[in-house]
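Retry 2 of 3 after timeout on previous attempt. Resubmitting structure tokens to design endpoint.
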């Protein structure tokens, strides 16, 4: 990458930081954040989806999602949040938001967990995530549960950690 391209990227990031505006990503219509909300921040997640082999509602063993464990980074690669079961996101400033799934759509990539639209179910703390109203998980890679036939009575209680990556967009009410 030449110096002019690097400088252009840096200036673009600087401009975005100055205005505080992040564009809405292109997503399927059913995963669009509600009208009247704007992107507060976007981050890239890298981590694992954790599954447990346990008896399902029908008493047959199945891989059940326990939750994610991931670090979220900003455009500069700085860790800004931690993602864990709930699903909950905890920002570096201590604020948290827990989401509830509203919509789901299969990922365009066959080996990836679905894309999601979530609504904020609860908040903790007074920081960045205090005002979050909606969250999108898009551009997913990996993270699918192990093959169903690998969860049998001999694997009951065992966990499987599946690597995944995704982009998360956090929305707040739009400023008037």
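Retry 2 succeeded. Sequence:
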């Amino acid at each position: 990458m030449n110096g002019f391209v690097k400088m252009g990227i840096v200036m673009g990031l600087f401009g975005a930081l100055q205005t505080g505006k992040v564009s809405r990503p292109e997503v399927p219509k059913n995963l669009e954040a509600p009208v009247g909300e704007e992107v507060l921040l976007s981050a890239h997640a890298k981590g694992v989806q954790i599954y447990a082999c346990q008896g399902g509602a029908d008493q047959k063993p199945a891989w059940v999602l326990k939750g994610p464990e991931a670090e979220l980074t900003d455009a500069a690669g700085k860790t800004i949040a931690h993602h864990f079961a709930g699903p909950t996101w905890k920002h570096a400033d201590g604020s948290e938001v827990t989401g509830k799934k509203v919509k789901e759509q299969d990922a365009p990539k066959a080996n990836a967990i679905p894309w999601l639209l979530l609504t904020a179910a609860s908040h903790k703390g007074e920081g960045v995530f205090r005002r979050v109203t909606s969250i999108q998980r898009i551009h997913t890679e990996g993270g699918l549960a192990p093959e169903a036939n690998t969860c049998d009575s001999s694997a009951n209680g065992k966990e499987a950690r599946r690597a995944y990556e995704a982009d998360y967009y956090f929305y707040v009410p739009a400023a008037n």
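Attempt log closed. Residues 98 and 122 are 5 Å apart (CA to CA).
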